[in-house]
Amino acid sequence: MQGGSTGIGYGLKYQARCISDVKADTDHTSFITGTLSLREENEVHLLRLSAGGTELICEGLFSHPEEIWNLSSCPFDQRVFSTVFSSGESFGAAVWQIPELYGQLNSPQLERIASLDGHVGKLNCVLWWPSGRNDKLISIDQENIFLWSLDCSRQAAQVQSKESAGMLHYLSGGAWDPHDVNAVAATCESSVQFWDLRAMKKTNSIERGHVRNVDYDTRKKHILVTAEDESGIHIWDLRMPKVPIKELRGHSHWAWAVACNPEYDGLILSGGTDSTVNLWYASTTTSDELTSESVFKSPTQELDPLLNSFSDYDDSVYGLAWSSEEPWIFASLSYDGRVVVESIKAYLPKK
């Protein structure tokens, strides 16, 4: 189904690439996003959906001098988040805290809890374990994976372990397995690598070029979704990683972002450089449930997995985030700094 957006919009002042659900805010649907301006002082916006769901309100606006390339909200403290930033050709990462009385201050300043120093070269992302309270963080640069121990009360972060991906691999991002605190997937030019954080060693890989983004299915173990340059969206059962179990081809250009719904099985968002957000329903059958009939079912017997295309964007879509509080709501962010919040209630399976 094709269709424009009926969503709620909010405009940032500058270009932007990253947006995150504020999972720890259990009273509201909230998102946090940051800008990417080379010449201007950048901003972090804390956004909240109004009680009636008709307006996106800026609850806090904070200065962040450097360009923000990656931003993630802490899953257990709604005032804490991380950024990866650059100034010129140098990159850095830090954990920040929003001041407690930010709504009553004229120009609230973010408090830097910890700097994640020690990286050389381009830093790509900081990962929080998504499934609960955990004092560990992961940061990934082009060549290395760092595991940090974070102590917010002491405002300190220490490197617990570090490992190189190898000379032939240039890491670009990753995702932390919500079902296993010791497992992380890291993307690079020619594969998706799977790491055991206890030994800091690679355990397996999917040989796949030009994977831009990955996300684990929070509802089912062993399921990973990838967004790829020219091949669209692929769903994998990690116990048999040679070939994907499903292919979702609905982008006319590179697929850049993918996000699995935190509550509803099979609902997946994807966005890309075709200025489109696609909503998919692709319920996964794991290898435990596979039969010869389900594996070899012809494509004509399957329903179209594309539920809707939201296509009223003017620029590439790099940021996607489901609401944890209201999982039928998502936010998207296009490069021109436009945030759009949509409801997908009309597409939810009938009970």
UniProtKB/TrEMBL annotation:
Name the Gene3D superfamilies on file: YVTN repeat-like/Quinoprotein amine dehydrogenase
SUPFAM superfamilies per UniProt: WD40 repeat-like
Entry keyword set: Repeat, WD repeat
The family database entries (Pfam families) matched by this protein are listed as:
Beta-prop_EIPR1, WD40
Where the WD repeats fall, as residue ranges, is 248-280
The processes (GO biological process) annotated in the record are: protein ubiquitination
* InterPro entries assigned to the protein according to its UniProt record, in alphabetical order: Beta-prop_EIPR1-like, EIPR1, WD40/YVTN_repeat-like_dom_sf, WD40_repeat_dom_sf, WD40_rpt
* Domain (EIPR1-like beta-propeller) ranges: 5-280
Q: Which PANTHER family match?
A: EARP AND GARP COMPLEX-INTERACTING PROTEIN 1, WD-REPEAT PROTEIN
Similarity field: Belongs to the WD repeat EIPR1 family.
- Protein name per UniProt: WD repeat-containing protein DWA2-like isoform X2
Name the species this protein comes from: Populus euphratica
